[in-house]
Fold this sequence. Notes:
By secondary structure, the chain is α/β, with parallel strands linked by helices. Among the domains are: 2-65; 474-640, Leucine-rich repeat, LRR (right-handed beta-alpha superhelix) (Alpha-Beta Horseshoe), CATH 3.80.10. The protein contains seven helices and 46 strands. Helix 1 runs parallel beside helix 3. The radius of gyration is 35 Å and the shape is globular.
Amino acid sequence: MRSNIARVNRIYKKKKAIVIAGGSILLSEMNNLEESKPANCKGQFILLLIFTTFISVTFSSNELQYQNQIDEKALLELKKSVKMDPSLSLSNWVNSNNICNWTGITCSRNRRVVSVVLKYKGLSGTIPPHIGNMSFLTMLDLSHNRFSALIPRELGKLQKLQFIKLYENSLQELRLDNNLLSGSIPLELCSLDKLKKLNISVNKLSGIIPQGLANCTALKTLNLEHNFLRGTIPRSLSNCTKLRVLSLSSNALEGPIPSEILTTLIRLENLYLDSNKLNGSISMEIGKLWRMREIIFYNNSLTGSIPMALANCSSLETLDFSYNSLYGIVPAELSFLTQLQKLWFSKNSLGGSIYFLMNYTELEIMGLGGNKFEGEIPEVIGDKLPKLQQMELLYNELSGSIPKSLGNCSTLNFISISYNKLSGAIPRELRMLTRLQTFGIGDNNFEGQIFPNLLNCTELQRLVLKENRFVGAIPEDIGLMLPDLEIFAVGANQFRGGIPKSMGNCSQLWMLDLSWNLLSGVVPRELGKLTVLQILNLELINLSNAHCCIMCVLDVLSNCSILEKLILSGNDLSGTLSRGIGNLSPRLSKLYLDGNNITGNIPEEIGNLTELTALSLRNNRVIGQVPSALGLLKNLQSLD
């Protein structure tokens, strides 16, 4: 008997835990237990059923009461925020009354507030953020009142909210940015003629921009960026003549930029139209926006030339026309933009020289890559642009050498001039750039020794020297002098000596390319410390001089657990592939071992590398049958 009672008690405790956690109990489970329990325990089970049902009801009731208290508190905060209630509409909003009987309130069956309708009540005041806690609210109608100040962004938390009516108020700012709002922009917003700031950016709004927004003639800021809006930019927005900030970035807008906007919105200071599908040319009318400080048209399909009238925008600080289809020579008149701090013309078809930059004494960021600029980098660039922090000129047709004056740009941290026709030695003056983090000069015709001029740049993170004619040895202590390296790409040069052991000290290194050089020696075991290494290219670096075996190299790399691409081609590595090949990174997708002296069979453990998409073993001396484990490599696309 005692054992049966103990069994029932254990079951009771378990069921009680389920009831408390979930608020209910399955009667079918109880019936099953009823059948399995001994007859003499029937009384205890009836008590158990009654007790657990009581707990369930009590729990549900307590939870519902808690949720109702949240609604009640939110409504009382709204009442507290109301400064004027001439018709005493909120007089029955007191704790002693059931909130479902309060004026303007509608509840659901479980007494959760689903609707707040207080239109035409003559109320004035503000809307508190606590409204955002009323999770069952589907309608909020405060229209035809005198609510002012801003709409709390917490309203964006109300995922059940279907209708919000606020027109005929004195609202000056509406912010619902960074939420999950969907659907089209409510037409009711077009009635807020006193609204000065409207920010509904970073949501999931779709449809077109309503023409009626032109009725919001008091608007100074309109921010609709980062949504899914389509169609054209309404010409009617030109009625909002007080606009200072207009941001329609990161949508799917198309068509030309309306000339009416550029003609009439003369108070505009910031215009953001980037990351859309806008086309056509940039009108000369843009010169009428003489107050402009920032113009960003990045990532569209704009064509034509840069209008010289842009020179009238003499207060311009940021200009971004990158990733479009602009062409022609940059107008000389743009040299009058002496306040310019950030300039991006990248990925267009612009040409001519870059001497127009020399008047931009305030310039901090220069992005001109992916164009057809030609001629030399002005020798005085470091004297004329002393505040320069970033210089991006890659993929152009520039020639000549790197100016020595760049050493005067003490805040310069980013240089990218790869893929040009530059030549000569790297000036010693660059050792003064102690803040330099990125130095990309690959695919040019530079020559001589480089490392003595860079080891002072101890903050270097990305160093790209590939496809030049640099000579000398890679310093043995490079990993100690440049410990923050993330990218070290020096392939296709004429470097000699060994692979420095100190490279293992570069704990953030994820790309190492030493290919096509005249290196010798072995792959140091210290490379196994590079736990974030993703790409390793040691193709044709003459490892055969050290009589390296293939598994000696692969064993070193077995600790590189996120390695994705490994190239060891053309090194005459000898020996057989052992089972240890299966210990390489499980993320390895490309493995190139061709052009070596590998013998023996391909081990079945190759099947452990399930992410492989490319495997090359050609020009070796492997024998035997193709292992069945290759059938496990479902992602394999290339095998030779």
